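tokens incoming
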């Protein structure tokens, strides 16, 4: 078995917990066809029936898959979706989970990322992720700073944090693969300050030019400054409209095998980083439903939850 099939086996057998009586759907698109095929191959020995559907790549993260794909997602026990753009924050994924399907999404996955990150010990990643989630759950105020100029206060009282452990074993649950993050949505309309994205930005990639400096007032990105990447982000937001400016997520990476490569699927999981996202927060219990969800990764962050230092200059303190 080659390295790609070994990684696919970990994803299907360990992370998704596929059983021999279950039905599995692989949702893929043209750029991720080879990964989809590897998942299909390993699933043939694990489950009762496996299907593979290839669609035309979506244009943005959060764009809905075609209706026939969405319908079939509700008709199986397990969906694994290696796709160029994310279908995590879509009605198709939410409706599949409501129907009881376990869904593992792999937006932007590449063979290199798959082979490296799917070999982590996901039980170790899970333990760390649950610790971070529990701290976020108890918090009222998150205060995030970084050497590049991040200084933002994010109210989180009463918001339930989500542990994305990479173990998607319960009926109706979902998560990213590879995984390793604890995240929540900020209280809507309340965050104030500035965050500076210096790692990578979803849909754009690595930050090569200048860090993207985003000013947030009353929970909305009111100003985006920087170089080429900042202009790209501003253009994407303007295409979608005002709701895309919503501060949608605060997340903490917990995967010790991940590294920043420009693929947000992996980048937002890197141990010692924090990411903030703009756009859709419905999957986290919010009200902003827009076909747009982009994460920006902040390096060497210091994150205080009330009086507890969770991260100090990129070192996790739990």
């Amino acid at each position: 078995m080659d390295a790609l099939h070994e990684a696919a086996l970990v994803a299907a057998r360990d992370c998704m917990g596929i059983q021999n009586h279950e039905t599995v759907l692989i949702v893929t698109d043209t750029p991720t066809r080879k990964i989809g095929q590897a998942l299909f191959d390993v699933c043939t020995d694990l489950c009762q029936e496996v299907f593979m559907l290839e669609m035309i790549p979506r244009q943005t993260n959060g764009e809905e898959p075609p209706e026939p794909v969405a319908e079939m997602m509700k008709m199986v026990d397990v969906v694994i979706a290696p796709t160029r753009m994310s279908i995590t924050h879509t009605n198709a994924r939410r409706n599949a989970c409501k129907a009881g399907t376990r869904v593992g999404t792999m937006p932007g996955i590449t063979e290199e990322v798959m082979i490296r990150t799917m070999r982590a010990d996901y039980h170790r990643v899970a333990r760390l992720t649950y610790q971070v989630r529990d701290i976020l759950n108890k918090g009222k105020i998150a205060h995030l700073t970084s050497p590049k100029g991040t200084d933002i206060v994010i109210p989180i009282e009463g918001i339930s944090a989500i542990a994305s452990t990479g173990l998607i074993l319960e009926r109706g649950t979902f998560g990213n693969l590879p995984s390793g993050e604890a995240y929540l949505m900020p209280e809507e309309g309340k965050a104030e300050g500035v965050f500076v994205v210096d790692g990578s930005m979803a849909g754009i990639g690595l930050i090569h030019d200048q860090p993207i400096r985003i000013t947030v007032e009353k929970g909305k990105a009111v100003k985006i400054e920087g170089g080429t990447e900042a202009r790209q982000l501003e253009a994407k937001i303007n295409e979608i409209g005002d709701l895309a400016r919503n501060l949608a997520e605060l997340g903490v990476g917990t995967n010790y095998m991940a590294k920043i490569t420009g693929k947000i699927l992996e980048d937002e999981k890197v141990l010692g980083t924090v990411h903030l996202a703009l756009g859709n927060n419905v999957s986290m219990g919010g009200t902003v439903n827009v076909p747009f969800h982009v994460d920006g990764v902040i390096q060497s962050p210091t994150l205080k939850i009330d009086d507890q230092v969770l991260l100090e200059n990129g070192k996790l303190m739990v």
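note: Helices lie at 3-15, 33-43, 67-73, 91-98, 111-117, 122-138, 228-240, 264-267.
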